[in-house]
Design brief:
By secondary structure, the protein is an alpha+beta fold. The protein has 3 helices and 13 strands. The chain has 2 domains: 58 residues; 176 residues, Thrombin, subunit H.
Length: 283
């Protein structure tokens, strides 16, 4: 009976508390007070939820943390970049091979397309081996071309391989001429000397000492000796780094100039060997 008598009073008190709580929730300081009171419980709940999520991920096979996923994606990107670089190299080789296949040899000459199979690590742009030899008709002294440009000549020949020295090597010598003139000379690579003055290239000796030649003048094969067709582009004349002039007079007897190759000599993959046809096969 006492409980029933106090029931209206308790209801009134609870009603007053509810109204006060509602009023507190509508004020800024009331919300801050409630957040301060409840924050320990909220932080504990968040910590427990995060820990439970980590434990579940650890127990599930194949699931990785964000750091591991980032490392995996970076490794995959590097792998794809390597594949793309290899694809670009294959595309360049294919384009180079197509250009070489379109090369039409001059009359009385036979073109043998070969692939570079190795290079000298110490003289990367001076010496190389190609996959063609006597069985393919290659002979010592034959001109080696890339994209129609003379890059060197055959030094040694084996049954199925041949060694080529480029126009940068001291072992490479053949007759050249200044384009659109009667001036002829002998080309020889500078070899290691080209690094001493910082100007890679070759020398052309025994030119007439009274000719007028400017920087950039084309240098072509002379065809003298019968080992190479005449008129094939080799390079261009450059100024001497010491004097700044193009033609140097040697021993008051002949002219000498420096030349630069028409293209880089360390990046190609295929070489065309221009071989003279035997007299019985010539038209």
């Amino acid at each position: 009976m006492a409980f029933q008598k106090n029931l209206p009073i308790k209801q009134i008190i609870l009603g007053i508390v509810a109204v006060l709580a509602l009023l507190l929730a509508m004020t800024g300081w009331g919300r801050r007070f409630a957040a301060a009171v409840l924050s320990p419980f909220v932080g504990t709940a968040n910590w427990a939820t995060e820990g439970l999520g980590t434990a579940v991920r650890a127990l599930q096979p194949g699931r990785m943390t964000k750091t591991a996923e980032i490392h995996t994606l970076k490794a995959r990107i590097e792998e794809l970049q390597t594949i793309l670089a290899g694809t670009d190299d294959l595309r360049r080789q294919n384009e180079e091979l197509r250009r070489a296949a379109k090369l039409s040899p001059p009359t009385q000459w036979h073109a043998v397309l070969t692939e570079v199979i190795s290079r000298d690590p110490e003289r990367w742009d001076e010496r190389m081996m190609v996959g063609g030899g006597t069985e393919e008709g290659i002979v010592v002294g034959a001109a080696a071309l890339v994209d129609g440009l003379v890059i060197g000549r055959v030094l040694h020949v084996h049954r199925h391989s041949a060694e080529i020295v480029t126009i940068l090597s001291e072992e490479c010598r053949f007759g050249v001429a200044l384009a659109n003139s009667d001036a002829v000379g002998v080309l020889q690579g500078l070899g290691m000397r080209r690094w001493m003055d910082g100007q890679p290239g070759f020398l052309v000796d025994y030119l007439p000492k009274d000719i007028a030649v400017q920087r950039g003048h084309p240098i072509v094969t002379s065809g003298l000796g019968g080992w190479m067709p005449s008129g094939l582009p080799v390079g261009t004349a450059v100024a001497d780094p010491a004097t700044g002039t193009v033609l140097q007079i040697q021993d008051s007897a002949y002219g000498q100039l420096r030349g630069a190759p028409s293209r880089p000599l360390g990046t190609f993959h295929f070489v065309t060997i221009m071989v003279p046809l035997p007299p019985s096969s010539q038209p």
